[in-house]
Amino acid sequence: MQLDFTPAEIAFRDEVRSFLRDALPDDLRQKMVDRAHLGKDDIVRWQRILNARGWAVTHWPAEYGGQQWTPTERYIFQEEMALAHAPEGSPFNVNMIGPVLCRFGTPAQKERFLAATANIDIWWCQGFSEPGAGSDLASLKTSAVRDGDHYVLNGQKIWTTQAQHADWMFGLFRTDNSGKQQQGISFLLLDMRTPGITVRPIETIDGEHDANEVFFDDVRVPVENLVGEEGRGWDVAKNLLGNERSGIARIGLSKERLSQLRALEAQLTASGELAEEERHVLARKLAEVEVDLRALELTQLRVVAADAHGGGANAAASILKVKGTEMQQRMTELVTELAGPAGLAMPQAGGRTNDPDEGWVGAAAPFYFTMRKVSIFGGSNEIQKNIIAKTLLGL
Amino acid sequence: MDFELTDEQTMLSETVTRLVAESYDFQQREHALRSDTGWSREAYASFAEMGLLGLPFAEEDGGIGGGGVEMMLVMEAVGRGLMVEPFFATVVLAGGVLRRAASAAQRAAILPGVIAGDTILALAHSEPGLPRHSLDARVVARHTGDGWTLDGHKIAVIHGQSADHLVVSALSDAGVSLFLVERDAPGVTISAARGYDGIPIASLALADVGLPASALIGSDGEGAAILERVFEEANAALVAEAVGAMAETFDVTLDYLKTRQQFGTAIGSFQALQHRAVEMLMQLELSRSMAILAAVSLDIDPGQRARNVSAAKALIGKSGRIIGQEAVQMHGAIGITSEYKVGHAFKRLTAIDALLGDRDFHISRLVALRGVYPAAA
Q1: Which of A209, A249, A319, B316 is most exposed by smallest CB count within 10 Å?
Q2: For position A267, what pLDDT does the model report?
Q3: Cβ of B359: how many Cβ atoms within 10 Å?
Q4: Distance of CA A329 to CAs A134, A289, A364, A368, B280, Å?
Q5: Cβ contact A3–B287 (<8 Å)
Q6: Is residue B371 pLDDT above 90, yes or no?
Q7: Nearest to B37 by CA among B84, B4, B98
């Protein structure tokens, strides 16, 4: 056993590190440090910088711009991105629709969308959840009825993140009601400017507007925008949700937050804002959370190493998702505790913190509130536990 | 980065796991516990026959020079079988002191018997009235003529009753020092007891015990440093044992969830229990990761070694409790009977937390070391 990275991996890490040091704009970095809300422009700008370097869509197949990195290199890249306070690209473009089109898209769809998706010339949103279909996604009802060379869509999607910015949506729609629930669902791409689409904002508990409801009223989508076979969209969606394991626990993000917590501890100690007893309690809490993070990190690395050796049980991804999101949430909880009453003031609309010099204080609570979502989306942690119980434990 | 075992390590793991599974089932363990000494000479002899008792010792001492990973594999099997034999006391604890600090003459006199399984050792360090996991000692060691005289009390000496030689920590003018004491030396009184985990323990009274100069292990005053190093290796071993006990507990519980019927169905079909079983599995995997970290950290620089070992011990303190408590709860009333395995595993996991610094102790140590992660470069 050898837990250190190889010299080649360390050289790769240094290359990533030095690129990030030079290429990440200072204002973007500062926003990330302050937990300020990132706008569409911020994310597009950064993804284009990455894309120019060839690093925006590294896990796509090489012919579509991927990098053929080893699982370990991917892990290192994700960790370095987080430690450098670099934003992630659009997950909908990079992790979801891109890989799906690489695998299931027609030649015409690949030609039309892939390069534009990598460069965020097209901003995608995901139309999966509906008011009656969250974790039980297969019960979705929004209909797509074939009419000549079009589908006609009627119904409603909800929790559609960033739909207000989106140029296109990929989504699941019901093309057939007759068979089993999972059958009769089709995976469609649609231009958000198509007549009949209404986007209505949902304000979330962090005071931000990321989520939306999207209504479809006789929306006509060309049949050429079907991905995969009609009625087999469930298989496409399952593929989309189940293929990322090297960074799923998001150790880099939690490490970055830990270093922020350590910096805050030092800052509050120096300024005298922490009483002796509070310092003592905080030091123990930080040590405890570090123990858990170290264990999670090693577990993530075991999965990465197993993948490099040809892969292991897929339910490992579910373990990492549950424990990784619990860890991220614990970090935001600690920052909020540290902010105390000074963190009560809500940031101004648009994500500007009230006091630019105290970015973390203003952002602490909203960030804590919004991070509650990570154990809900992408298959809630309860759903992940169901998966583990079934596939790993045979219960 | 590589978590794979070598072929030799895989073979070691398979062999010792099979040995424990085939020769040490729960009834045999119960039988061993009921004997006078509280453990099985026969089971211990089978460890000796396989060469396991020489595992960490150098080849020139007759051992096989195994490292942290090899010890992890053996201790995991020991944990799986809830073995009560004196492997940890003899080979890891007292043997660790001899391996690290004893003179060539001391090693030559004692280690062959240890490796053959004929000689049992125990470490007598804990004392009443001292902080629970201190490197200090209050047993007094006085220089008398060419030799030494020891006076004082020790508690919680694991396998002290069976030990042929005791390694005793005592305070001399130079500081904490370690001495070899024969169990039948005049002035030594051993009072045997049983731990709640079934493992024999003893308390030790030392009244004017005279020792030759050759009884000193290492140099005078070096004892705390030796113990600190040995305790790190011993803690890594305990973490691995805990992983074995947790894995066994988890497997037994999972099997029970699949077979026990209530309300006309297997109780494992209930989501409330499924999710708790999943939490147990996750804690087990996190613990396994930390056992690996501790095992591969034993020869790295002292600061990071201390961090990694303490982090591992702190983590299994928590996971051992979660897995033990959940296993008992999910078994219902049968889980609290002494004729059922999970209760014993729960007790052993509880004892492992208490030994060589519990979770709270290691969290405090990590605070003093300024955290788990190395200081940012």
Answers
A1: A209
A2: 87
A3: 21
A4: 21, 11, 12, 7, 20
A5: no
A6: yes
A7: B84
Torsion over CA: B339, B342, B347, B348 (sign): positive
Which pLDDT score, from 0 to 100, does residue A311 have? 58
CA atoms lying within 13 Å on the CB side of residue B193: 11
Report d(CA A320, CA A241) in Å as an integer. Answer: 14
Structure tokens at A131: 């008011």
Low-confidence spans in chain A with pLDDT less than 50: 354-356
Residues of A within 8 A of B367 (CB-CB) are 283-284, 287
Query: Residue A361: what pLDDT?
Result: 81
CA distance B15 to B360: 36
* Structure letter (DSSP) for residue A5: P
Q: C-alpha distances in angstroms, B159 versus A327, A393, B252?
A: 41, 38, 28
| Of the partner residues A291, A319, A323, the one whose CB lies closest to the CB of residue B311 | A291
Q: In angstroms, what CA-CA distances link A360 with A28, A146, A265, B263?
A: 15, 51, 12, 52
**Structure-token match 């390590």, residue found:** B9
Helices B271-296 and A381-391 pack at an angle, to 10 degrees, of 80
Q: Is residue B224 classed as helix, strand or coil in its secondary structure? A: helix
Q: pLDDT by residue (tens digit) across B23-59? A: 999 999 999 999 999 999 999 999 999 999 999 999 9
The radius of gyration of chain A's CA atoms, rounded to the nearest angstrom, is 22
| ipTM associated with this complex | 0.95
Short-list A389, A138, A83, CA closest to A258: A83
How confident is the model at residue B377, as a pLDDT? Answer: 40
Q: Based on DSSP, count helices (H) and strands (E) in chain B, helices before strands.
A: 12, 10
Q: How far apart are CA B16 and CA B75, in angstroms?
A: 9
Residue B5: DSSP 8-state: P
pLDDT at residue A342, as a whole number: 82
**Cβ–Cβ under 8 Å, residues B100 and B217:** no
Q: Do A262 and B371 touch (CB under 8 A)?
A: yes
Based on the residue annotation, tell me whether A244 is a catalytic residue of this protein: yes
